[in-house]
Design a protein that fits this description.
The structure is a homodimer.
Chain A: H1 9-21, H2 26-34, H3 41-53, E1 57-62, E2 65-70, H4 74-90, H5 94-103, H6 109-121
Antiparallel strand pairs in A: 1-2
Helix pairs in contact in A: 2-3
The structure holds a DNA duplex.
DNA sequence: TCAAATCGTTTACAGTTGTAAATATCTACA
DNA sequence: TGTAGATATTTACAACTGTAAACGATTTGA
């Protein structure tokens, strides 16, 4: 019963923190987010609440507070968002998408090598 | 004064049709979209209206109807959506994004070759 | 010339999102 | 044991979205 619903941009920010630091308290999440966002603690708590309602986040009481952890796995969430992005922005065409990102970002020699290796290991579809 | 605001998923569907067929009448857009979507004509007209309000779409009267065409260029819109997607879903990291899309989609031998060539021509950042 | 069809404009409405304050609960110190 | 402080839950609210009907103006076939 996991990940039936999509998560919004702001919610992604929160989940990214959770996935990297779980289990974690609301305080912890708020503090980490404070480094990047300008959200009030109340705002973050709202997101926490919505995410649990969406079934993406779960918690277990620890003393007087909650310990949060992701319910589903990040990969499935990434898959869903990526699919939707590919469809709407690139009309479902993978190569134009890849071309766009390669062309519009700087890549180190190592990264380029890594991507070459990835292509080498890629089995061609027929 | 172009493209100050983002466009929604449904609006992307409409713009994709416009970018490929402009200039085009509302009827034309509605008919092409009917092939893929189940929207009522009224719904499409609402999107047309919102898109012009957002400055993404413009029109010129042609007889008793309008001829629509995109205001800004598609590339800038793609850039904006891509940037936001990269940031929220992949924490700004291009290589993981590229890896995900290569791994999760089938690519023909030609496409793989095309991507290799792209990497070969890519100048490494230092 | 009158009614029907066609266009574009307004209005509608519920659900989601960003943003946050108000309130209720609970824990722990004094 | 009562109260301050921290936590979580409710409530708020405007903007944006998806979805579409209602309305008003205009063109055109009968």
């Amino acid at each position: 019963m996991t990940d039936r619903i999509g998560i919004s941009d702001a919610e992604w920010q929160v989940m990214n923190v959770v996935w990297e630091n779980q289990p974690i308290t609301a305080q912890g999440i708020i503090q980490i987010l404070a480094l990047k966002q300008k959200w009030s603690p109340a705002t973050v708590r709202t997101f926490l609440h919505r995410l649990t309602k969406k079934g993406v986040l779960e918690f277990e009481p620890e003393g007087n507070r909650y310990l949060y952890r992701a319910a589903g796995n990040k990969t499935s969430q990434i898959r869903k968002a990526s699919k939707s992005f590919l469809e709407t922005v690139f009309n479902g065409q993978t190569v134009p998408l890849l071309t766009h990102f390669v062309k519009s970002h700087r890549l180190s020699e190592q990264e380029i090598a890594e991507l070459r290796k990835l292509l080498d290991g890629k089995e061609a579809a027929r």
